[in-house]
Amino acid sequence: MTDFQATKALFALPEGVTYLDGNSLGPLPKAAPDRTARAMTGEWGEMLITGWNRAGWMDQPAKLGDRIGRLIGAPEGTTVLGDTLSIKVHQALAAALALRPERRVILSDSGNFPSDLYMAQGLIEQLGRGHELRVVAPEEVEAAIDDDVAVMMITEVDYRTGRRHDMPALIAKAHEVGALAIWDLAHSAGAVDVDVAAADTDFAVGCTYKFLNGGPGAPAFIHVAPRLIDEVQPALSGWLGHAEPFAFEPGYRPGPAIARMRVGTPPVLAMAALDAALDIWDRVDIGDLRAASLALSDRFIAGVKAACPGLELATPRAHAQRGSQVSFRHPQGYAVMQALIAQGVIGDFRAPDILRFGITPLYLDEADIDRAVEVLATILRKGSWDRPEFHARAAVT
């Protein structure tokens, strides 16, 4: 059994703060500052450019990719780290469309994160071959999978409501009609039980700064199914995805297997922090994590329902349809969230009216959940959210 009190002790959580925003940015692992400092002074400072070889910087994208791969059910050597999630979405989508040249439809849903949709829109314009981005309601995705679809691009857990798609079923349906599937795990990796191999997914992408706790701007990852990787031709053919980067050839030759999905120079200092964060996962059983997440979520939902009648639950109650966040609707959701944050209960807001709360058992327990309910209920009962400073919109919500 995973000892979640022990994992909580591995995070630097500010005194008096109940942190329910790990679905947006995970907190600082206590080991990360020393690990990053070692990379800065002991490696960069002492080794200078020789650190690429002596400290193994060049190999880190593959090594960290495999560590993440173990959390998402990916076989060794099929996941690599680097760049941003938007870049990885672009890579996966361009590669998938090239594998289905006779089809023109990209299927997604209205609960997908806008950046994924933006990547699709931009790629369609660049290709200029008449592709269509077809966006349907989340509950209509399965019915919309037909013979016209080239690629289904879905974020498993809706970033606003926390609704979880049945991705294995959707992937199976996509394969039945000859379509490929891209599975965005931004709100899944480190949050729910994921098995990309069992689901027979084609491409999976995700970020590492949310539930994986890699730090602000931590690099993203991409997984490609072993049966496809030798066919994939990267549209973003960066020099580190070349078969021999240091041959400096004028023409591109894709690297072997997943290495071809590398693009630019890896962020060494960010990888050091992520490496420290992933050490915590060596202590965690994903099944235990999922069970604890659902129990804490149920407790939070029940507490809010009893104490905060003015809030509307936006997250499905059924466990199979829920990720690791709980969302509520309130017409003044932004101001309510700012009042909560001022009281040391940190969640976040998503337009137009969603209060989001990440449920992360690595560092949250029942006492944290109960405190969050109590503070939220007091704010709503007293109307203390209705102050000018809580209505003033900041750049990040």
TrEMBL record:
One Pfam family linked to the record: KYNU_C
Reaction it catalyzes: L-kynurenine + H2O = anthranilate + L-alanine + H(+); 3-hydroxy-L-kynurenine + H2O = 3-hydroxyanthranilate + L-alanine + H(+)
Biological processes per GO annotation: anthranilate metabolic process; L-kynurenine catabolic process; L-tryptophan catabolic process to kynurenine; NAD+ biosynthetic process; quinolinate biosynthetic process
Keywords tagged on the record: Hydrolase, Pyridine nucleotide biosynthesis, Pyridoxal phosphate
GO molecular function per UniProt: kynureninase activity; pyridoxal phosphate binding
Residue list for modification N6-(pyridoxal phosphate)lysine: K210
Family matches, as InterPro entries: Kynureninase, PyrdxlP-dep_Trfase, PyrdxlP-dep_Trfase_major, PyrdxlP-dep_Trfase_small
Pathway: Amino-acid degradation; L-kynurenine degradation; L-alanine and anthranilate from L-kynurenine: step 1/1; Cofactor biosynthesis; NAD(+) biosynthesis; quinolinate from L-kynurenine: step 2/3
Family: Belongs to the kynureninase family.
Role description: Catalyzes the cleavage of L-kynurenine (L-Kyn) and L-3-hydroxykynurenine (L-3OHKyn) into anthranilic acid (AA) and 3-hydroxyanthranilic acid (3-OHAA), respectively.
Stated name of the protein: Kynureninase
Naturally occurring in which organism (per UniProt): Limimaricola soesokkakensis
